[in-house]
Amino acid sequence: MSTTNIEEKQFLLRFKCDTKSHLTVLDHDVCMTQCPDKLCTVFCPAEVYKWEGKRMQVGYEGCHECGSCRIGCPYQNIKWEYPKGGHGIVFRLA
Amino acid sequence: MSEKFDVIVVGAGPAGTSCAYNCAKNGLKVLLIERGEYPGSKNVMGGVLYRKQMEDIIPEFWKEAPLERPVVEQRFWMMDKESVVQFGYKGLEWAVEPYNNFTVLRAHFDQWFAQKAVEQGALLINETVVTECIVENGKVIGVRTDRPDGEAFADVVVLADGVNSLLSKQLGFHREFRPDEVALTVMEVINLPKDKINDRFNLEGNHGTTIEIFGDSTQGNLGTAFLYTNKESLNIGVGTTLSSMIKAKLKPYELLDYLKKHPMVRPYIEGGESAEYLAHLIPEGGFNSVPRVAGNGVLVVGDAAQLVNAIHREGSNMAMASGQMAAEAIVEAKKDGDFSENSLNRYKEALFGSFIIKDLEKYKDAAHTFETYPQYFKEYLPMMNKAMSKFFTVDGTPKREKQKEIMRSVTAEKGTFKVMQDIYRAWKAVK
């Protein structure tokens, strides 16, 4: 079967997770008070960001390391680094 | 690792590996640093590898490189909700040596290519992130990595660290990119038996097809989708500028699923098995986003230098060519023992004199035009579909009358002057 939702898509992937997040929301208040649309929760291709009422949950383990959140956050509120060498997503095909 | 090299290349994608290969071939001592588990493990590409620029580096590479299919047909679709206007070209001269381009799976290809650089004498170190360039007296003299005691020194550091190029940003070579300068693209590899692929795409043997899909594939937003044939799988993907994605509040994976379910696309992938899902940014700022590419002891190549021609879906070829030009500049600089910006600007001159910057310059206003005036994707493509439908539907209306009706429907909707203006603007953007 070909996938029909993001959970199934993410399930296809191999990750070598670090214990520490390479993505940091600098100030959760900015998300709460200034960003009604919570854009990162929309455009992130891996649904890494989830708004939990008061703070932004960052599921860095499923990150594709594309960089969209760093560039797309209207408040430059995301500190974006590469995962430690050899960690993070491991593409096997394309 | 605090050893001195002639060249340190950061990133073992097409640009970095090309540079490392050519430097090592010329007898330089090269360190090639890759942050992934292996080269290709962090890289994503729709899948088209052009023969020419690869052949310039390794002649007859197709005899041993892990390629999928030589592309013999390139199709273009202007898609609406339940229809598509198509054109394309199929030519069997592309099915024989020296070929035109190939589909590839990058995780396989990049490993092979990096291995070729190693065979030339480059030292490849995987699983290592370069965290910063070491700068002394205004000159880059090495790199700091995330390994313990992980410093390495060189006469020249080549930044091939991809679209995000945190390193050249650190050096102040460019500001942070804007959402309209990058395209967010997601794709899936879908396994399908070879005979099914050949039947559905009307192919023989190992011949391949590429389809670029405009219009409803991005729900009218500025971007494209693609469907490429591998040996026993298809690559299907879609991307728009990040700014369009934000403006339309699109979830990229929902756009991909929309494409996969589209009645014009679905029959091609029916019954396939998803094997991988990938997301990546493509640098699409073009000519106006190219950063400073040379400094004292440092060069920037490939995606890191934003060298992508989005209109012609060329990127990896520009990466390879730029890597080779960087290597040539370094070899010359080494002869003079001068690694200053002035000396390394040989690379910039070569780059700007080549097809790369000439092509980026040609299309420098294209993305901006189509982003500012969304009617091309949102209105004209559906209109084109309607016109074709009307023209080819036999209903007893004389053809001349049909033509008139079609022209009327276009100009009635927009006004003749507006249409002329739109045509002129589009022509100017791509001429």
UniProtKB/TrEMBL annotation, chain A:
The keyword Ligase does not apply. Residues 54-83 form the 4Fe-4S ferredoxin-type domain. Gene3D superfamilies: 3.30.70.20. Keywords: Electron transport, Iron, Iron-sulfur, Metal-binding, Nitrogen fixation, Transport. Transmembrane segments: none annotated. GO terms for molecular function: iron ion binding; iron-sulfur cluster binding. The keyword Ion transport does not apply. It comes from the Bacteria. Could be a 3Fe-4S cluster-containing protein. To ferredoxins from P.putida and C.tartarivorum, ferredoxin I from A.vinelandii, ferredoxin II from D.desulfuricans. This is Ferredoxin-like protein.
